[in-house]
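can u do me a favor
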């Protein structure tokens, strides 16, 4: 594949190749080799139309650790404010020599469109409520490192599924990798299309927790929320928040995940987020490694 747009485009062998390459890169960089020459002379453009901390910085760190040149573009402060279109913005950046464009955009489908306009590789860094494939890859990598394997593992994804590109990408990738996924959410925050997703749906978090190897909490996306979908923060937290009592219902060796940014005290209690069984900080570190693997596999072959 020349692009990475959907986790659903990855066959099991593709996904395992990315995870195994990341494992190899982690071994190399853990031996304190900070920078590899692999992508010297290549240019990666980070094209961010929506805010990001983890994804933008980790793609930048990943590209730099592979010796690529990095151009960071954010819509704020650019000619997008004068009405320049995505296509013209992309063609402008390509004229400056982009071998890969990493795009985050509020419109679902923007990376797919972009791939028809530019010659370089397109990597989806989150498009609207659609997908966030490198998040799913770093989550699978984090699970594999903690649990040893994904085949038959029970992964529970909890919260604002309706607005979550992380949930969709995780369901698709985890299914490919042989895990069993259950989504838990208020009925108003379950997408109507969920019947076609390869997972189970439950509305009873307390019943699902004791059977989970992984509990992944999602951020409540207040910025995309219609008030009609959402009870109150207190009611949400009471029914779907991972507090100390619910955490105690999980098996002793089960792990807690969150893609970040977190609403501490709402979907997850601070003491759960900071516990030894939380992988939240590891997920961020693994994000750099996974993005190195993705850039390496997309660009590392032939020279420009
Ligand atoms: N998990 C994630 O995508 O975080 P950012 O929005 O900070 O990139």
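np, heres the sequence
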């Amino acid at each position: 594949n020349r692009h990475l747009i959907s986790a659903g485009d990855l066959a099991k062998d593709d996904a395992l190749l990315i995870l195994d390459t990341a494992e190899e890169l982690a071994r190399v960089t853990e031996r304190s080799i900070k920078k590899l020459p692999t992508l010297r002379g290549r240019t990666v453009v980070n094209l961010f139309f929506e805010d990001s901390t983890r994804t933008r910085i980790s793609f930048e760190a990943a590209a730099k650790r592979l010796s690529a040149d990095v151009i960071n573009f954010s819509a704020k402060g650019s000619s997008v404010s004068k009405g320049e279109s995505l296509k013209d913005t992309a063609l402008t950046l390509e004229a400056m020599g982009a071998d890969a464009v990493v795009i985050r955009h509020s419109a679902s489908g923007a990376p797919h469109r972009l791939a028809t306009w530019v010659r370089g590789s397109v990597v989806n860094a989150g498009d609207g409520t659609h997908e966030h494939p490198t998040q799913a890859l770093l989550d699978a990598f984090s699970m594999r490192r903690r649990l040893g394997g994904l085949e038959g593992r029970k992964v529970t994804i909890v919260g604002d599924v309706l607005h979550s590109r992380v949930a969709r990408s995780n369901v698709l990738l985890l299914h490919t990798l042989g895990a069993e996924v259950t989504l838990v959410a208020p009925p108003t925050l379950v997408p109507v299309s969920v019947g076609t997703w390869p997972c189970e749906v439950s509305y009873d978090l307390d019943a699902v927790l004791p059977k989970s190897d992984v509990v992944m909490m999602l951020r409540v996306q207040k910025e995309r929320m219609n008030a009609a979908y959402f009870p109150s923060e207190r009611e949400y937290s009471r029914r779907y928040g991972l507090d100390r009592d619910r955490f105690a219902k999980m098996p002793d060796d089960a792990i807690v995940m969150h893609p970040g940014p977190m609403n501490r005290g709402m979907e997850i209690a601070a003491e759960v987020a900071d516990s030894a069984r939380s992988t939240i900080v590891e997920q961020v570190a693994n994000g750099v490694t996974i993005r190195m693997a993705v850039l390496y596999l997309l660009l590392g072959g032939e020279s420009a």
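The chain has a mean pLDDT of 93. hope that helps!!
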